[in-house]
Amino acid sequence: MRKLIRPAAPSVLQEHSERWNNQWKELKTNSPSAQFHWYAFEKRSARDWILKDLATMTQGHCAFCDRFTVEPESVEHFRPKSDPRFLHLAYSWGNLYFCCGGCQNYKREQWDEGLLNPDADDYVFDRYFAFDFTTGALIPNPAASDANQQRADVTIRLYGLDSTERRRFRLMELRNWQRTDGMELDEFAYRDFVRER
Fold first, then answer.
1. Please, what's the b/e burial string for 90-116 (b: 16 or more CB within 10 A of its CB; e: otherwise)?
2. DSSP tally for the chain: helices H, then strands E
3. At how many degrees (to 10) do helices 11-30 and 46-57 cross?
């Protein structure tokens, strides 16, 4: 999970997020079975308005596993949009991430207070994680504090960041990186893995 720098919120959220958050909170509170659907502005869904800005923030990579996303591209609600504690954040810019379907399918509406946020001011990869370059595994950094290892473990588990498939893809991408010359790092998935090796 790479460190991200979040730009200012897109104007559509600056103008409408408070109202949309209130609408969603009221709807979900009054009808607990209500399903989330993006509200629209000028005949485009809020998701469509913000997707490009989220993708730019991550250079088109998933904010959590760092692979390239494929259609349909997803917007991850870091704090779950259906959790009563977080209904007021469904359209809040700081709660939204560009995400691959794999990470979103693992996490779904799960939440844990220890979950790491890739654009938190104090987030640094090595403080929490380490790679095993022989297997492609992503593990809690053994040199980290117990608390940081627990946070890394929660993040790995909830987003499925150490699945067998992801280990295999990291190793494949490393081989691709080693065979190329002159390509930019952002043209590869799992950038921290291939760069460190």
1. bbbbebbbbbbebbbebbeeebeeebb
2. 7, 6
3. 120
Are the CB atoms for 112 and 150 separated by under 8 Å?
Answer: no
Q: How far apart are CA 146 and CA 165, in angstroms?
A: 27
pLDDT in tens, the chain (197 residues): 999 999 999 999 999 999 999 999 999 999 999 999 999 999 999 999 999 999 999 999 999 999 987 666 789 999 999 999 999 999 999 999 999 988 999 999 999 999 999 999 999 999 999 999 999 999 999 999 999 999 999 999 999 999 999 999 999 998 888 888 778 888 888 888 887 76
CA 43 to chain centroid: 27
SS3 159: helix
Token digits of residue 155: 């993040």
Rounded to whole angstroms, the Cα distance separating 138 from 153 reads 10
Residue type, 34: A
Length reported for the chain: 197
Residues 190, 174: Cα–Cα separation, whole Å: 8
How many CB atoms sit inside 10 A of residue 33's CB?
A: 5
Strands (E), the chain: 40-41, 44-45, 74-77, 96-99, 129-132, 137-140
